[in-house]
Amino acid sequence: MVKKTLAGILLTLSFSAQAQDLGLELFAGASNYQGDLQEKRYTFQSSKLALGIGASWALTDHLTIRGIFSMGKIEANDRNNQDSFLVARNLHFKSTILEMGFTGQYHIFSTFSARINPYLVAGISVFRHNPYTFDSLGIKYFLKPLSTEGQGLSQYPDRKPYALTQVSLPFGAGIKFAVTDRVSVGWEITLRKTFTDYLDDLSRTYVDENNLLVARGPKAVELAYRTGEVKPGNASYPADGTIRGGADFKDWYYFSGVSVTIKMNNPRFSKSGGYTGKPARTDCPKQVR
To answer: What CATH architecture is 21-263?
Structure first.
């Protein structure tokens, strides 16, 4: 009984090893963001270049797991909003997103029998962000050290400094086209649900001007409230507690674009170029007499 069980396990492992489909994943497309500085979920105006590289493993003919490192930029500017209040607020930010993601892809059709195959994506990612902006002279400033909403100040014990390394939950959909025996090209869009409202350094309310000035200096006050740059006649700093952003909803970011998968083993086409609908067969070597 034990021998039969061990033989069954070895046979299963051997079959799984042969069935595994190892691939190199390349991605190029656009990154985008939604939060307090961008009203719309997705805009071409704020889209920036995103790139990725990773590896994929086909566990079955429908399920693939993927690990991929991605890099993209996100940004938004109040001047692009439609609401006059938001335009007058005049805040803006940029940030580079560095992400290591692990996702599963569920293909609607068998990857061994379909040239065109839609799929769903879901998983988990760890990413790093660091929002920054430019002052009126064009000088770059990272925003977290300025505590623009009182993060880390003794007067606001409930406002802790936000972490620059966070976890997100990517999910989305795509479609792949088998081009050759080893290469497939696809298009994919994945949304990232985050657990932070500070991708853009903006979430809650203004804090007292004097408290911020003493703790972080005049540049923090200048970059926390920028209405004076566009409306000099209405540049008085808001009172402590005045609404600055909306903390009810967390920020999101997105990647969308073209993916290329290069199979490293088990091509789905025969050597002659015909589509077989199954992994290419590896014949056993002939017996040497």
So the answer is: Beta Barrel (2.40)
